[in-house]
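> forwarded from #structure-qc
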């Protein structure tokens, strides 16, 4: 691992082990430089380092060790706690709650763990271990014991990725799940999935999910009209706003598709397996299709626009999102036309030429708007 990689890894967490080595004078020149750069990069880290050094120096002061008040642990811990809260971005309300929690945890008469650490401390002293080393052992163990309570009540930060017309995006979630977001879509998800939580994301639009397998935690995709639960599989979800339909196509594995009105007994819930497509109509009707043409649903991930008996308005809606074009169907009779075709999504001109030839229509393009009409007819008919 190179020095730059190490430095990046240190940016978002406190390197307690290296900090202790630095204070003890046991760092290599490279580690010493890393610590100094880490401290100098942020004023809150400077304050944190100063508090730790104060505790460290007091622990190693032989004259102070002989005094009953060689170190005011309560005062120094409160200072250190304040720095930890400040560096973690806590609000003042969160800090006060945590400080009360810390005080309760560290009152000897109310904490068996603290009493055990105090006994361990005396035991280590009795065998002649240097006080500074003992202090490091207790401080490190206590901090690691306290750390879960410091972070457990922090909710993950919600992230949002949106695509515009003509855009697509690929992202990887914190659990390793890969998501391909189609044009004019939005995905909301936490920046990290807590181990005890279900993995839940919210989708508007269309996305292909390749879910990282985890038998202990379900992965749930929520849309305005349905929920999809999986453990590890690959599937496509189409849930366009303004349409009373959610489509789910399973390429690998299996998923459970639920309507918003599904109950605990599994009613209005269906299990889909590889090759199957499920649809939710309205918010209550479930329809499944065995062995569907999956290319119709997932072909876009390979750059294919696949239409199967699609009406011309459906075709133009998808083309509009894909190429960021507006369409005007000038003849109402064209709306009933249907298209079945596999189109490689290269230039829009090539795709439009194929569609025009297949349906026997003509088109004109004017400043990003495509006008479709019957051949030899420029208006509604």
């Amino acid at each position: 691992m190179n020095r730059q990689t190490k430095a990046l890894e240190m940016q978002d967490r406190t390197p307690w082990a290296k900090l202790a080595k630095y204070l003890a004078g046991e760092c290599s020149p490279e580690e010493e430089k890393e610590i100094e750069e880490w401290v100098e990069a942020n004023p809150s880290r400077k304050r944190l380092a100063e508090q730790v050094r104060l505790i460290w120096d007091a622990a190693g002061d032989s004259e102070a060790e002989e005094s009953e008040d060689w170190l005011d642990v309560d005062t120094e811990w409160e200072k250190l706690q304040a720095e930890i809260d400040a560096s973690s971005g806590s609000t003042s309300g969160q800090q006060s709650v945590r400080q009360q929690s810390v005080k309760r945890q560290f009152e000897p008469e109310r904490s068996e763990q603290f009493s055990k650490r105090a006994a361990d401390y005396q035991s280590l002293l009795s065998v002649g271990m240097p006080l500074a080393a003992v202090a490091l052992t207790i401080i490190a163990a206590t901090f690691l014991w306290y750390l879960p309570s410091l972070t457990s009540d922090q909710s993950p930060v919600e992230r949002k990725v949106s695509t515009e017309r003509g855009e697509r995006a690929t992202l990887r979630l914190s659990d390793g799940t890969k998501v391909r977001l189609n044009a004019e879509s939005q995905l909301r998800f936490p920046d990290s999935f807590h181990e005890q939580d279900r993995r839940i994301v919210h989708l508007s639009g269309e996305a292909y999910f390749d879910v990282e397998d985890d038998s202990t935690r379900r992965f749930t995709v929520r849309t305005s009209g349905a929920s999809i639960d999986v453990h590890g599989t690959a599937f496509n979800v189409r849930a366009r706003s303004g349409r009373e339909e959610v489509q789910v196509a399973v390429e690998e594995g299996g998923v459970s598709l639920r309507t918003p009105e599904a109950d605990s007994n599994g009613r209005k819930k269906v299990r889909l397996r590889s090759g199957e497509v499920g649809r939710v109509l309205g918010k209550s009707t479930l329809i499944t299709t065995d062995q569907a043409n999956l290319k119709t649903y997932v072909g876009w991930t390979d750059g294919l626009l696949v239409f199967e008996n699609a009406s011309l308005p459906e075709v133009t809606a998808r083309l509009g999102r894909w190429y960021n074009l507006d369409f005007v169907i000038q003849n109402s009779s064209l709306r009933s036309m249907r298209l079945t075709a596999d189109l490689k999504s290269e230039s829009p001109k090539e795709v439009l030429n194929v569609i025009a030839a297949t349906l026997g229509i003509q088109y004109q393009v004017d400043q990003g708007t495509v006008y479709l009409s019957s051949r030899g007819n420029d208006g509604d008919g």
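QC bot note: The chain has three domains: 42-151, 158-296, 303-374. Residues 3-9, 62-71, 87-134, 141-153 have pLDDT under 50 and may be disordered.
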